[in-house]
């Protein structure tokens, strides 16, 4: 479960401008904490701060009005009031226009609208955040991954860290043994933090159509952790590999089939050659040979797509191969 959404309220009266800046969205897991980055701006703040007898931060729940103080106050820094939470700490320095606050042990019943209020005697300034709950899977980039064989690939996976003291851990699955992974906690432009993990590897044709998963695990003050994940399928472009000839026989007709792995495979072309001749004898995945043709020698195929070509690894003596095939078939039938 996550907590989200903060908005900015700005007022302007005559020469007085009051504003608070917070991220549009933050997330928090139940049983964990959430840090709300918060800054504010007040016209002539330095002069007002010097003249103020005190400067305090207050978080109100549900309503911005301050009439019913006791029922609405979740936190008051001046009176050490904390209601509805196990703990709330204002980590920002109000004298530096920083109202960043950490709410601990988030529960489902904390879903509500919250408003920040700055009190400077004799002045009072206010701003509004609106938290609510919403799960967020990690962001995996790029989300469309098509690369050529032997290309160095870098994937990034980021997961929000609403509680910097308990950031999520990121793990990767179904990746190459040679993959290099680095992970770090970073601050984003809106002052929220996320864990970024970067995974670098060299693409092999064996990685084609492999699903790579990034999993974010969030610790919390409960018996279980919470995990979310994102997956991307790797498409590797490569020339024909493992090209070979497969021999089958029906009656006096022998069929030679050219098999090869390639990507893309829908544009594979097959060319057949007879041993000792430079001119192709046929095109296509399969060729059929009659009994007379079988006695004439050996054949091989070449598979080709736009990324390259490969010949079958060795010549095949069709006469020897077919005789052995027929011998085994007859023995089996007997």
TrEMBL record:
Gene3D superfamilies: Immunoglobulins. Signal peptide: none annotated. It holds the Pfam family Ig_2. Its main location: membrane. Residues 131-233, 240-317 form the Ig-like domain. It is a single-pass membrane protein. SMART domains: IG. It is found in: Membrane. Keywords: Disulfide bond, Membrane. Transmembrane segments: none annotated. This is Si:dkeyp-28d2.4. The keyword Phosphoprotein does not apply. CDD domains: Ig. GO terms for cellular component: membrane.
